[in-house]
Amino acid sequence: MSAGTGTDLSASTRDDLVGRLLEHCAQVCTTGDEGPIADTVVARYTELGEEVLRVGHSVVVDGRRGEPARPLVLLVGHLDVVPPTDADLEPRVESRDGAEVVVARGASDMKAGNVLAMAAFEDHDLREASPYDLALVLYAGEEGAADANELREVLAEVPWLRGAALAIVLEPTDGEVQLGCLGGLHAVLTFEGQQAHSARPWHGRNALTMAGEFLAELDRDHVRDVEVDGIAYRDVWSATQAWTPGLEPGPRPASSPVRNVVPGTFMVNVNFRFAPSRGVEQAEAELRERVDGRASVEVVDRSPEAPPRLSDPIVQAFVRRVDAPVAAKQAWTDVARFAEVGVPALNYGPGLTGQAHQRGEYVPVDALVAADVRLRAFLQAPA
């Protein structure tokens, strides 16, 4: 199969993409259970005669063509999805608001992107004509805890990936080219007072109300605009959890025996998402400065940022050839893993960000086709 770069793809190509997506979504692979789908991917590319490497439940398919070496482009996606619901367990084609969509768990996040990557990689005419060597990187563990994400392990165990000219992470981007990504910190703030009887609060100090001033500040000032390379990002501060250790009300708050206790300790989880104008260490110092000694601070999770790298020639080439809107990635993605090893990376995919993890998750077929055309426009263009 070889697709052109125009917008009028044949019905057979459209049907091929939809069929691929239905097949890919039929194998549900929640985080931690990617083994079977990894087996399927390995078997597919082994049968096609490709060189396949497996790291855990992640798969790398090496499409390099030897000498003369060409710039290497990685087509990157994660295999896992969040748990399905009864509204998206069965992959199917439906009509929504007059448009044809594929409904399935992972349809937008991010199996539609995986399908485009696989279809392009399997197009031998495209690979022969392309100025780039291609490799597929389909990895496990993206939707779970950061330490279980296998991409970092893949990049460590397959060292030639770190020499790539570009990594295209086909996460859902609403058809935009989304550059860079936010970094992130989760920190537990502990406000320490003195526990007391609620009838005689002067015998202690209420740790919960001690946190009030800080929380009010977050309510007033939790979004700040930051521009990096002419691209608008936003710093975001969010209090996402709060609790009084040992005094939780339980399932029936009205019957709790500890409602008359002034808490001596109150803990708040703060999630700071920061623009790629600075690194993790600077962001952590900024967080501690903002708390200003009012609570102890324990940073419990750190996610690195990724710069947009808009000035890189290959990123400029992608933006020019794809001819899609350019925006910031107002979230964290695995472009940050590539940034850690010095590989330029960007986010571009057909999925809808607003459909990620939704009940009845879907992707429009028109978006799938349009992204396929634009991705191929870059892969077929002169380097």
From TrEMBL:
InterPro entries: ArgE/DapE_CS (IPR001261), Bact_exopeptidase_dim_dom (IPR036264), Peptidase_M20 (IPR002933), Peptidase_M20_dimer (IPR011650), Peptidase_M20A (IPR050072), Succinyl-DAP_deSuclase_DapE (IPR010174). The keyword Ligase does not apply. Gene3D superfamilies: 3.30.70.360, Zn peptidases. PROSITE patterns: ARGE_DAPE_CPG2_1. One of its GO terms (molecular function) is metal ion binding. It is an enzyme of class 3 (hydrolase). Its cofactor is Zn(2+). It comes from the Bacteria. This is Succinyl-diaminopimelate desuccinylase. It comes from Egicoccus halophilus. The lineage of its organism: Bacteria, Bacillati, Actinomycetota, Nitriliruptoria, Egicoccales.
